[in-house]
Amino acid sequence: MPEAALDLAKPAAAAASVLDVKGLEAWYNESHILHGVDLDVREGEVVTLLGRNGAGKTTTLKAIMGIVGKRAGSVVFNGREIIRLPIERIARLGVALCPEERAIFASLTVKENLFLPPPIAKAGAMSAERIFALFPNLRERLASGGAKLSGGEQQMLAIARILRTGARFLMLDEPTEGLAPVIIQQIGRTIAELKREGFTILLIEQNFRFASTLADRFFLMEHGRIIDSFLNSELEGRMATLHEALGV
Amino acid sequence: MLRMLLLPRFAGEDSGSGFSPPPRSGARGPPEGRWRGPGSRARRRLEVNLFGHVISLPQLYGQLLIGLINGSFYALLSLGLAVIFGMLTIVNFAHGAFYMMGAFAAYFLLKLTGLNYWWALILSPLIVGAIGAVVEILFLKRLAGFDPLYSLLLTFGLALIIQGLFQYYFGASGLPYAIPKELGGAYNLGFMFLPVYRGWVIVASMAVCFGTWLVIEKTKLGAYLRAGTENPTMVRAFGINVPRMITLTYAFGVALAAFAGVLAAPINQVRPGMGADIIVVVFAVVVIGGMGSILGSIVTGFVLGVIEGLTKVFYPEASNTVVFVIMALVLLIRPSGLFGRTA
């Protein structure tokens, strides 16, 4: 896709860049998954990655976090190159991942899961009270085992868990996948609330009607590359091509 | 109430350890004249008839005690193996060698620096744990990501090398290590004598096992460990230095083995082969309890020790094989072990 499209998508009053990814490549063992991903996320933005299954969306998030076999290119977070840092150092800088599989620890209680990640910054860490206000269900399930939660509760716990740490940049991998509509609405309200509070969010979402209510910008992926990017306001005009590109 | 009795010499298996408590007179022992021997009333019925077997009660109690002692060592060793397996998913075949090194460390601390048993209980696990950390960093870390078979072979080879070196320098026969004088003598329980040191081993093992269980199941540190066992990558993504945690976990598991080695030194003497002798049974215990199960390894360790002891009373011919028969049965009925999570 032409460079112009990328330029167009940049908001006029450019806020500080939180994440700047250039030419990111990633491998799992011998398979080359990402072939040079370029994307950027600005302070306070919600940016959504679209693409078919296997396009490399999840791998992009994992590669930013450092969870791939091998990676190359450049990932700059808050002005700092993190491509060579190990996972735990990247996390300590304030990058938080809520993975697709949610990764709730079955051998830990809900409370232990919630309080597991150590705080990485004092400022911006959400209090337990605020978290229970966002996710009232969790308060009642604190003593339950992590494996006993419903899919929706697991997703809430997975989001709540990274809010407690003080990380201000959240990567959410398909938070609505496989959930009932009423739960999807609750997750949507939560993400909107987080955006109002100034969190910066990189979101993977198959459901772009859901994403359109939250996202400022979209990036479209195919075969391990970004092939298009556009503003939320441009979404309407691209519906037809998107339907074709995403096969939905 | 337990009455403490100080015998001039306790005629136990460890009489070879060369220590006999000095006769002490004082408030702690009962006056000579009033004491009438161990369970004098019970002496009239020292035998019971069970399924046609005539069992002497002192023999039964004696074997139960030996069973509990052995169980104490099984529990400590299999607990260390379980902790290591949980976090590193490797079967640490060098565990017996570290157990032996723990006993040797105690011996040398006493011989070279004069630091006594109590110091050895603390220092020996620290020294051996540090050696374990070095082994993990130098060798096992490099094998992470490979088939677990490689680390299994590596630790197996390491065990042979360590044992061989100790045998070369110190010979196969044992070096004596005396029971500390605070733990000499025996308690009179009314129905039997309990050598104080044996009682101490059981109590110390239970306390350390329970403490370890408590830390793993109930504390934040334990939560990191359990989470790291399930999904180490995700735990790293929360900012926790999992590679360092793995090194410390291995060091801790190995330190537990060294602690058991110090406890064993006054009972079994300090021999290069002491680890190889016990470790085969310990692996059977781990399989029966379920690989990686913390509680399973502790409970199974003690229970199998007692079962082994009872077998010596009821069917002595099977006493060396009973653990392996149970292992075979458990593998047939519950392949993941009694406490293991079924896949």
CATH topology-level name of chain B: ABC transporter involved in vitamin B12 uptake, BtuC
Strand percent estimate of chain B: under 5%
Taken from the alpha-carbon principal axes, the silhouette of chain B is globular
Beta-strand content of chain A: 25-35%
The assembly state of the depicted protein chains is heterodimer
Structural domain tally of chain A: 2
Quickly name the level 1 CATH class of chain B: Mainly Alpha
Number of strands of chain B: 5
Structural class of chain B: mainly alpha
Report the helical percentage of chain A: 25-40%
Largest sheet of chain B: 3 strands, antiparallel
Protein described:
- The complex is a heterodimer of chains A (248) and B (343).
- By secondary structure, chain A is an alpha/beta fold.
- Chain A contains ten helices and ten strands.
- Chain A has a six-stranded mixed sheet with strand order 6-7-8-3-9-10, with helices on both faces. Chain A has a four-stranded antiparallel sheet with strand order 2-1-4-5, with helices on one face.
- In chain A, a hairpin with a 2-residue loop joins strand 4 and strand 5 (80-81).
- Chain A is globular.
- The model of chain A is unreliable at 1-10 (pLDDT under 50).
- Chain B has 343 residues and is mainly alpha-helical.
- Chain B has helices at residues 57-88, 95-113, 117-143, 148-170, 196-218, 220-230, 232-237, 242-268, 274-289, 294-314, 322-333, and strands at 3-5, 47-50, 53-56, 186-188, 193-195.
- In chain B, the strands form two sheets. Chain B has a three-stranded antiparallel sheet. A two-stranded antiparallel ribbon of chain B has the order 2-3.
- Chain B has one domain: ABC transporter involved in vitamin B12 uptake, BtuC (Orthogonal Bundle).
- In chain B, strand 2 and strand 3 form a beta hairpin.
- Chain B contains eleven helices and five strands; from the N terminus they run E-E-E-H-H-H-H-E-E-H-H-H-H-H-H-H.
